[in-house]
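Render this sequence as a predicted structure.
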Amino acid sequence: MKRTGSVGKKSRSSAGSKSEPKDHRAAGYVLCISNRRYPASLELLKVYRSLKDGAARRDGFVRVIDESGEDYLYPKDYFVPIDLPISARRALSRA
């Protein structure tokens, strides 16, 4: 099995730097309940798409596509996971 370039890489920090290629699959949607340290990047009470990232989750973070349109790590206690109807998920995936 050939290893990819991302094997063994770790995130350099929480928000503000990306550390892995965009091969993460969508995990679902989350509602922002705090933007204390990132008011320019996160809007309170806004729904964001989250991406699967087991390493980040184990470290207490969630990978979110933020206001910049890029995926970054944020503290997982800034969000609550939400279930959306299929029509809402389709609409958000087109946005």
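Summary. The helical segments are 54-58, 86-94. The radius of gyration is 14 Å.
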